[in-house]
Design a protein that fits this description.
Elements (H helix, E strand, L loop, with lengths): L3 H39 L4 E2 L13 E19 L3 E11 L5 E10 L9 E10 L16 E2 L4 H8 L5 E8 L18 H30 L1
Parallel strand pairs: 1-2, 2-6, 4-7
Antiparallel strand pairs: 2-3, 2-5, 3-4, 5-7
Helix pairs in contact: 1-3
Length: 220
């Protein structure tokens, strides 16, 4: 009987921790399926920009457009692994139909002294995106320097529709390097969480065995 309580406690704890790890593995499979779907959507054949795109239904929609770049825009402070600090360049594209859309042309490294924004006629392909980068800690814009992509606010500042095309390819090209949409920035930590829960289950097993060993020694 002296082993009953620690045995029950150990079995219940291990069962809970293993079930949490198993749940995270199911979440991992679910997230990987979503990421595969997003990747397939991002790289699909481009279409014309919808007349009234929906921020949810049309997120990542591949599009093509042509028109005149505005020649002025906004810079967004960001960073890229193995590149460092960058400025994203957001400007406007005025289409032949008279629509004014936002375009994320890509980036230059901050060490570049070139802060100009291309202008003139271009043809581009890319993806519609409404980034969710704003939180309570995001500083307010400092003139033309922004600290996150806020599509509605940028559209108001540049007199455009709240529709952002993140360029994948721009013709003719420029000194700004495209930074296309990808699923790489979407969090997928479920494997790490699963390993954590399974690791805790092993620790719980070890603690249970140690407790039962201590009980045995006291009764010898």
């Amino acid at each position: 009987m002296r082993y009953l309580f620690p045995a029950i406690l150990g079995i219940c704890g291990i069962a809970i921790l293993v079930s949490l790890g198993t749940w995270q593995l199911r979440r991992l499979a679910w997230k990987e399926a979503i990421l595969a779907e997003i990747d397939a959507r991002i790289t699909a054949a481009p279409v014309a920009v919808p007349s009234a795109p929906d921020p949810e239904a049309d997120r990542y929609l591949p599009v093509e457009a042509e028109g005149d770049l505005g020649g002025e825009g906004l810079m967004v402070l960001a960073s890229i692994k193995q590149v460092g600090a960058i400025h994203r360049f957001i400007t406007t594209l005025t289409t032949p139909e008279g629509r004014v859309l936002l375009v994320d042309l890509g980036y230059r490294r901050i060490v570049s002294a070139d802060a100009s924004v291309p202008e003139g006629a271009v043809r581009l392909t890319g993806n519609l995106h409404w980034p969710e980068e704003i939180d309570s800690y995001t500083p307010a814009p400092d003139g033309s320097l922004w600290f996150a992509r806020d599509v509605p606010a940028m559209a108001e500042a540049l007199g455009a529709e709240p529709v952002l095309i993140v360029a994948r390819e721009v013709t003719p090209g420029s000194s700004i390097t495209p930074l296309p949409v990808s699923s790489a920035g979407i969090p997928n930590d479920h494997l790490e969480y699963a390993l954590t829960w399974f690791g805790l289950a092993l620790v719980w097993l070890g603690m249970t065995l140690f407790l039962m060993w201590r009980i045995k020694r006291r009764t010898v």
